[in-house]
Amino acid sequence: MIVSGRAVVIREDNVDTDVLYPGAYLNVTEISEMKPYLFEGFDPSLRDELGGDTILAVARNFGAGSSREHVPQAMKASGIRALVGESFARIFYRNCINLGLPAFVSAEAAAAAEPGSAVEIDTDGTITVDGRTFETQPLPRFMQDLLERGGLEDWVRTQVAEV
C-alpha cells in the first residue's frame, strides 16, 4: 500500500492526546463534528494547514497521555492520511492502526520532513521525503490488511462475512 501527501510538521516531543483533543470535547461522538477540536489545546492554527493530502510528521513519544480514539478519528476526518514519527506512545499507535490511520516510525524521515515536503510511504518499508528514501520497519501483513479495509471494525466485518 502506498500513501502519499504533503507534510505538516510538529517538532515538539511528548505531545499528548489531552492537548491534541481536549477532554471538554469528548462528548462529541459524530466523527465529522470532531474536526474543529483537533489540536485545540496544542496549536489550533495547525488545522488551517490540513487538507485531504496531509502526512503528519511528528517528534518523539507523540500521542502520550490518555487513550483517546477521538484523536486519530479527528485526524482522519481532517484529511490526515498517515503519520511519520520519531516514536509514538504505544496505545496511540495501536488506536491509529485500529482506526485505519497508518502510522510509521522513522526518526530520519520525520526529521527530514519540512512543512510542505512531498512524502510517500510504502507500507512494505520505505518512506520518501522530497526524493530522499528512508528505510522503516514494514508493517506486518495483518496490519496492512486492517489499513486496507479501513480499520479493525471493517476488518472484523469482513472476517465474519467470510465465515
In short:
The protein has helices at 17-20, 70-77, 90-98, 107-112, 141-148, 152-162, and strands at 2-10, 54-58, 80-85, 103-105, 118-122, 126-129, 132-135.
Shape from CA axes?
globular
pLDDT averaged residue by residue: 94
CATH homology group: Aconitase, domain 4
Quickly count the helices.
Answer: 6
CATH topology: Aconitase, domain 4
**CA-atom Rg in angstroms:** 15 Å
Range of strand content: 15-25%
The secondary-structure element order is: EHEHEHEHEEEHH
> What is the helical fraction, as a range of percent?
25-40%
Strand neighbour order, sheet with most strands: 4-3-2-1-5-6-7
Count structural domains: 1
CATH class value: Alpha Beta
- How far apart, in Å, are the first and last alpha carbons? 26 Å
- CATH architect. name: Alpha-Beta Barrel
User: Main beta sheet, described?
Assistant: 7 strands, mixed
Ranges with pLDDT <50 over ≥5 residues?
A: none
List the defining traits of the structure above.
single chain, 163 residues, Aconitase, domain 4, seven-stranded mixed β-sheet
What does this structure look like?
By secondary structure, the protein is an alpha/beta fold. The protein has one domain: Aconitase, domain 4 (Alpha-Beta Barrel). It has helices at residues 17-20, 70-77, 90-98, 107-112, 141-148, 152-162, and strands spanning 2-10, 54-58, 80-85, 103-105, 118-122, 126-129, 132-135. The chain has a seven-stranded mixed beta sheet with strand order 4-3-2-1-5-6-7. A hairpin with a 2-residue loop joins strand 6 and strand 7 (132-135). The protein is globular and about 45 Å long.
